[in-house]
Design goal:
It contains twelve helices and twelve strands. The protein is an alpha/beta fold. The chain has two domains: 2-128 and 281-322, Response regulator (Rossmann fold, 3-Layer(aba) Sandwich), CATH 3.40.50; 129-280, 3-Layer(aba) Sandwich (Rossmann fold).
Length: 348
């Protein structure tokens, strides 16, 4: 018992020492927008955990305005932050601010979206973005039993923002799973739109995804033929596709994929309107970033688990990849409610 008490006292002393070291140190956190639920959650989780660790935090949201984010990041640097964490609107848009951070010796952590074309990026923290796509592709593969079913099955694709480096990883991961079935004719894309440039959704906007989906439905499915699966890279695009289907589709309801487990989309899963969403627990990612911030400021070795994959055009950025999982109607309660990510009331 005495040893246990001694251990707790030592732990308390370490935590107090860490808090004392953190006191007076400021962390800048730049998020793209408040328009998407996930960025609000990311920002709030990060701020909460950084404050609990003893840091002061300058959290800013940029309203999906590249110039506004550039100005905010520049101001954070000029105001003397010790580390800056950036989830970029466009990965190549912050060059002058990153140059300034490098000049002032301020470490930069790219958060969930890789910062491109700069050697001023110290680390990258994200979920395994290629795996996000493979999770979606494998879900479709298993749901349609593509290895055994005769088919053919009708597929349409809605990918993400061309300005977001992650979007290509999501798309590539899913297509690497599904492409053999497309080439074999078991999956058919009536619109003919399969290349990333054709299926991308600028700024991830629900309305943009909805308008394109409505056009596809009017052009290729007005005869009442079925869509079996609509591969959507994230929840905001899935919501747009769902809206379009509700407005202009009379066939059997398709499998719809997503990502982020936004509340509206989880409700759609419960209602049978969306089949799955890749769950990326932002608490886990925020905790990893807080740990990395502490290691940087303490002059310690920073935890990374990938030093080969993420080339930003200037350097290969040392990265820490968290693992995503999928949520559907069968496991959402355990993943999202029992874990405390949402309350049951939020999903009513």
């Amino acid at each position: 018992m005495k040893k246990l008490i001694s251990l707790f006292l030592c732990l308390a002393m370490v935590l107090c020492a860490m808090s004392a070291l953190a006191e007076g140190q400021k962390v800048g956190v730049s998020m793209p927008t408040k328009d998407l639920q996930r960025w609000n959650q990311d920002g709030e989780n990060m701020e909460k955990q950084l404050v609990e660790a003893g840091y002061s935090v300058d959290l800013q949201f940029a309203s999906n305005d590249v110039q506004q984010q550039l100005n905010q990041v520049t101001n954070m640097i000029n105001n003397g932050v010790d580390v800056i964490v950036i989830a970029a609107i466009e990965g190549s848009s912050l060059g002058s601010a990153l140059d300034l951070a490098k000049e002032k010796g301020i470490p930069v952590i790219a958060y969930d979206r890789l910062l491109m074309e700069s050697d001023a990026v110290s680390y990258y923290a994200t979920f395994d973005n290629y795996m996000v796509g493979t999770v979606q592709g494998n879900y479709v593969k298993e749901a349609l039993d593509l290895d055994n079913a005769e088919g053919p099955f009708a597929l349409e694709i809605t990918a993400g923002d061309p300005g977001d480096n992650n979007a290509n990883y999501f798309y590539s991961g899913a297509l690497d799973v599904l492409k053999p079935y497309i080439e074999a004719g078991k999956l058919t894309v009536k619109s003919g739109q399969t290349e990333f440039t054709d299926v991308a959704t600028p700024t991830w906007k629900t309305e943009v995804a909805q308008n394109r989906a409505s056009s596809i439905l009017a052009s290729f499915y007005a005869d009442g033929s079925n869509i079996d699966v609509w591969l959507c890279s994230n929840d905001s695009t899935a919501l747009g596709v769902t809206n379009a289907l509700e407005d202009g589709y009379d066939g059997e309801w398709p499998i719809i994929t997503g990502q982020d487990c936004d509340i509206s989309n989880v409700k759609n899963m419960i209602a049978g309107k969306q089949s799955m969403s890749v769950f990326k627990d932002t608490r886990t990612l925020a905790a990893q970033v807080v740990k990395m911030v502490g290691q940087i400021l303490a002059g310690e070795t920073v935890d990374v688990n990938d030093t080969e994959t993420y080339d930003n055009g200037k350097i290969v950025v040392p990265s820490y990849l968290c693992e995503p999982v999928f949520a559907d109607v069968n496991n959402y309660a355990e993943l999202l409610v029992e874990s405390g990510y949402y309350t049951a009331d939020q999903l009513q």
